[in-house]
Amino acid sequence: MIDILLATYNGEKYLNQQIESILNQTCRDWRLLIRDDLSTDNTINIIKNYTSKYPDKIRLIEDDKGHLGLARNFGALLEAAQSEYIMFCDQDDVWLPNKIELIINVMKAAQQRNPGLPVLVHTDLRVVDENLNVIADSFWKLVGIDPQTANNLDNLIIRNAVTGCAMMINRKAKEISTPLPAEVKIHDWWIAMNVAKAGKILFVPVPSSLYRQHGGNVISAGRKKTFRLSDCKNGIVNHYKIVRKVVPDANPVILTARILVSEITRKIKRTRKRA
């Protein structure tokens, strides 16, 4: 069984398409767990409509934790997950029909080769606009990600190379990644670092989802940003705090210098590219 974790917040515009794409998967051995982060639109009614139609497949997680934000919303879902395999789902994407089948086959083969270890499998994505018109066939190429760096902790602590909505983890990976620290703003990066430290990360070089870009994305593949040194400084400080939780014996001077160079270089490149 696979637990699919769907974190929602004011997602009424695209949520039906996402859930329908999950219902249309070629692999049927899954359960969809949804936690809504106190939406103020029609999101919760859409969810309850699906839970009433598919009570054995779709479950709404209701708690008194209030509004948590994206990473902590996924963190709450992760702690509620009970299955051997776990996937993460954005509310505004569309899954290609064979996504689960594609990833679970790689996951099971990896577990046979690495018994007892935490395992993470991730794929590329096809970037689309709000109407699902293709912007880029490869998210990795669009943003300059080399997926081969993801299984190397030394590289991963400097730059994330794993996208949450395109990954699956096993139970061991969940155990070493929970609970998510309060400082964590990007859940997939936190999980990937922990798995790289103790287990195996594998990638599948084909898209498994339509990664929708629109004005309301929390994390965008194409949003234009202006380079500001103050933003870079804040990012470096938070980056350093999180990495030290995974690698407490890292040399602070070397680590800070590497993060600084990476952050400045990345932000300048993105600013120039989108100018």
Number of strands: 9
CATH class membership of the largest domain = Alpha Beta
What level of helicity do the residues show? 40-55%
What's the overall average pLDDT, rounded? 90
Order of helices and strands: EHEHEHEEHEEHHEHHEHH
Radius of gyration: 18 Å
| Biggest sheet architecture | 9 strands, mixed
* CATH architecture level-2 label of the largest domain: Alpha-Beta Complex
The global form is globular
Termini separation (Å)? 46 Å
Strand content: 15-25%
* Class computed from helices, strands and strand pairing: alpha/beta
| CATH fold type of the largest domain | Spore Coat Polysaccharide Biosynthesis Protein SpsA, Chain A
- The CATH superfamily of the largest domain is known as Spore Coat Polysaccharide Biosynthesis Protein SpsA, Chain A
Unreliable stretches: 223-230
> What number of structural domains do the residues give?
2
- In DSSP terms (H or I, runs of 4 or more residues), the helix count works out at 10
Walk me through the structure.
This protein has 275 residues and is of the alpha/beta class. About 3% of the residues have low confidence. The relative contact order is 0.14. It is built from ten helices and nine strands. Helix 7 packs across helix 8 and helix 9 crosses helix 10.
Topology:
Blueprint (H helix, E strand, L loop, with lengths): L1 E7 L6 H9 L6 E7 L6 H11 L4 E3 L9 H11 L4 E5 L4 E2 L3 H15 L5 E10 L5 E3 L2 H5 L9 H4 L10 E4 H7 L9 H12 L1 E13 L16 H18 L5 H23 L1
Parallel strand pairs: 1-2, 1-4, 2-3, 6-9
Antiparallel strand pairs: 4-8, 5-9, 6-7, 6-8
